[in-house]
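task queued by scheduler; priority normal; single chain, no ligands, no partner chains; default sampling; output format set to structure tokens
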Amino acid sequence: MLTVATLLWDANRNSLPFSRMYDETWVEKLYRGFARNLSDPFRFVCYTDRPRHFAEPIEQKRMSTSTPGYGDCIQPYEMGEPMILCGLDTVITGNCDALARFCLKSDIIALPRDPYKPSRACNGVALVPGGKSDIWTRWKGENDMEWMRAQPHVYLDEAFPGAVVSFKGRAKAAGIGGASIVYFHGREKPHELPAGHPILEHWV
């Protein structure tokens, strides 16, 4: 079975100003986005710093640090399961069955190209096959993005052209198109979009 994983922690000294607004509702919206766009059953796991109450069937796992930071986004790899890993500032805008099949059948991770430096990867969304728990066990606290760039990977942009796109790098100017996933990064998040923006109909 596919696992979808994300993380939620209370804003702390490690949190940048543009990522201090997350709460349980963001997790629930992400769950519902996948529920609408995956045909087969999936497990949804949220790594969190404390017990939470969710209105959706979301499994909770405790984060390993008491004051989490962005590097802790490596922890979900400990599960060693076929997984779509994404941040809370992610909106599911279309069918994700092909992305799920990649996780279930592939033997290599797929990452998006960095929208600003396309010669390298970013980790806004990761399609992860099973058996990759060593990415967690070998991690010694390196920057999470640099750590993932050092792992064998292919690019989502070539494996699934147009399916997983950056909001600022593409969707803001060109629209959603045929994208299944739009990921946000840095400043400007879904809740800051103007009323009536096409992405908001998927962020519910």
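post-processing summary
- Strands lie at 2-8, 42-48, 59-62, 83-86, 90-92, 109-111, 125-128, 153-155, 164-166, 181-183.
- Residues 24-37 form the longest helix (14 residues).
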